[in-house]
Amino acid sequence: MPEAPHVEHSSAAVDTEELRKRLTSRVVRKFLAYGATFAVMAVVPPLLVQSGAFDGTWHWLVNITAPFTGIGIMGLLVLLFYKLPSAVVVTRASRKVLRQYSFEEFWPHVVKKDGKRATRGRPELTLRLKNAEGTRSPLLRVLEVPSRGRRRDPWPEGIENGVWVAGDLPFGGIAFVPSSGALLLMHPEKWDRLASERESAGPDRIARAERAGLARRVF
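Predicted structure:
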């Protein structure tokens, strides 16, 4: 997975266009790598058996390689019908947001909250942001994390040091973690409670959120 450009906290802005271009290539490379691995596991053992490569003294390798075929097939099915559609939806949504908004504000304080419910095998993640003036964001749910975080930790590495935000938080947006290059697509956790704030945002903000795909509940 390619590295996102390193951005210091004091930087005036994040290269939004560069990140938008990398979103698709990041997903494509990831799924090509996994797909190739599962395809080899699914196809190669049966081909070797059929070719007679395991005849004679090597027949015992059939028992060793046979389970890999099942793992490869299951992996391909999960990848194609579960992981890939979700990744495509999130990537398209993220690219749409970045066409309308740039990373213009840095939020130095991030309060992480691990939800009790599991989403796609990991805890549901929510966070609250606070800027240097003490202004707090609404509680935000992380819809998906194209993560470069630590293993076993669903949070991207370095998120506690602050994030850049592109979007309009009563509607949602994207956070960029400069120390690890992770991008987080976020949505207000209490969507209905912020309805009046969105309605009073003004026609320009509402129209911009609509173009970004944020004017309605995303998921």
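Summary: The longest strand covers residues 109-119.
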